[in-house]
Design goal:
By secondary structure, this protein is mainly alpha-helical. Among the domains are: 1-49, no CATH class; 125-239, Cytochrome Bc1 Complex, Chain D, domain 2, CATH 1.10.760. It contains 13 helices and no strands. Helix 1 (3-19) runs parallel beside helix 4 (43-49), helix 5 (69-80) crosses helix 6 and helix 8 crosses helix 12. The longest helix has 17 residues, at 3-19.
């Protein structure tokens, strides 16, 4: 069996295993995918991240569809190489070659699935206003740039490797910022997001996650073109290819 086919078999098996909580029908569907197709390659991904990567139903597995291809590729590399810590992802990706991961990233970047309306925010008006100010204006006194300075005026991301921030669950946003703040999530040096997260208080993180998750997505929701803005800090993820 070729290396590619071994990878496909492993991914299909993993997809079936991860789909088990959804019932035997989902597991059977994953097990009967045609080999050597993108559907087979991403079976383990969509078992948790939803069909076409539209996001999992539990608010923990984020949307993959439409994210910048380089961003998705970097995250796959980071999970595979231990830069990001999440054992199920590391297990699925161990040994997979870079070119294979780039194809998977490109597949999900090309998926365009409508966003659902945001959940009603369970937050006070004051908390939402704090989140709005941090996201759109930052806090110069603390050296905190606005989210829009890097993630685009519509918070839809910046090509080639900065993702959009809307359409994500509140708990997921808070967990990821907290992961950067606590050193559990990292990016290529200089890790600009790590530097920013280190300056955020728990109250800041709660306010940002509440406000960002409350905002509706306005289509077309696509990353701003590369070079369309000057970043307020040097970010290794933008240079990494």
């Amino acid at each position: 069996m070729s290396r590619t086919r071994r990878y496909l078999a492993a991914l299909a098996a993993a997809g079936a295993a991860l789909a088990w909580p959804a019932g035997p029908v989902a597991a059977a569907q994953a097990a009967t995918l045609q080999p050597d197709t993108m559907q087979a390659r991403v079976a383990a991904c969509t078992a948790c991240h939803g069909e076409q990567g539209k996001a999992g139903p539990d608010g923990y597995y984020p949307r993959l569809a439409g994210k910048p291809a380089d961003y998705l590729y970097h995250q796959l590399l980071n999970f595979r190489d231990g830069v990001r810590q999440y054992r199920p992802m590391a297990h699925l990706l161990v040994g997979l070659p870079d070119a294979y991961l780039r194809e998977i990233a490109a597949y999900f970047a090309d998926q365009h699935v409508p966003y659902p309306p945001p959940a009603a925010p369970a937050a006070s008006a004051g908390m939402l206003e704090q989140g709005r100010v941090l996201a759109t204006q930052g806090d110069p006194a603390r050296g905190l740039p606005a989210c829009v300075a890097c993630h685009g005026a519509a918070l839809s991301g910046l090509a080639p490797a900065i993702p959009g921030l809307l359409g994500l669950p509140r708990d997921y946003i808070g967990a990821q910022i907290g992961g950067w703040k606590n050193g559990l999530r990292r990016a290529a040096e200089p890790d600009c997001m790590g530097d920013i997260a280190a300056k955020l208080t728990p109250q800041d993180i709660g306010a940002l996650s509440a406000w960002l998750s409350s905002r509706p997505v306005v289509e077309p929701y696509v990353p701003d073109p590369a070079g369309s803005t000057n970043l307020p800090a040097e970010c290794g993820s933008q240079a990494q290819r």
